[in-house]
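Researcher: Quick test of sequence recovery. Tokens follow.
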């Protein structure tokens, strides 16, 4: 019995946590302290905070991965959720390992906007598109993150003559089309943008660079 108990402890999953970007929410974990055997499999359950019964996640029942997609199971974004994982190896089952409480609306990271340079003459005109959630409207299009948060766009310009790392904030606001003027012809400029969520005081990563020469 003791050996079984030791093995149970050694295979018990560690660091169970939710990670979430634009409400695409996945549960991640690390294998137990034992060197992971080839036959180790994992079982995932989830529940809403306050509920007594756990739900099995069928696609993540007896899997070898260390990640499980719970996007659809956490679609009520104001609700707090828990996930938990247990491992099995050589017919021995570990105890459950529990995640911290996860509230999608509060904890998801909002991604950067998509930036398109429409045209450039003496000025650059940009189009910004909010990141999209995985949740769909009745007609099938994905709901933008602006439906869930009051988002601001922050647009930065990089003058490649001066310094690759020097980003100057040229716009902050809600407009989707932005004009940047008073630029020098023949100079290469790059644009990056972030989304900012004022209510949570949180910024996204930078978007990928869009570069143009006037």
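Model:
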């Amino acid at each position: 019995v003791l050996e079984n108990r030791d093995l149970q402890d050694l295979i018990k999953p560690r660091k169970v946590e939710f990670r979430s970007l634009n409400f695409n929410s996945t549960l991640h974990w690390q294998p137990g302290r034992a060197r992971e055997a080839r036959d180790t499999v994992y079982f995932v359950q989830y529940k809403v905070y306050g509920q007594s019964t756990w739900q099995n996640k069928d696609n993540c029942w007896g899997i070898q991965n260390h990640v499980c997609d719970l996007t659809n199971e956490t679609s009520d974004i104001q609700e707090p959720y828990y996930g938990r994982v247990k491992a099995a190896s050589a017919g021995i089952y570990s105890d459950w390992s529990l995640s911290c409480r996860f509230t999608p609306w509060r904890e998801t990271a909002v991604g950067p906007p998509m930036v398109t340079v429409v045209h450039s003459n003496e000025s650059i005109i940009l189009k910004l598109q909010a990141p999209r959630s995985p949740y769909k409207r009745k007609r099938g299009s994905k709901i933008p993150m602006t439906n869930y948060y009051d988002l601001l766009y922050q647009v930065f310009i990089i003058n490649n003559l001066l310094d690759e790392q020097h980003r100057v904030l040229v716009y902050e606001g809600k407009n989707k089309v932005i004009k940047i003027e008073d630029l020098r012809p023949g100079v290469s400029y790059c644009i990056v943008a972030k989304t900012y969520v004022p209510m949570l005081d949180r910024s996204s990563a930078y978007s990928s660079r869009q570069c143009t020469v006037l």
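The chain has two domains: 1-106, 114-213.
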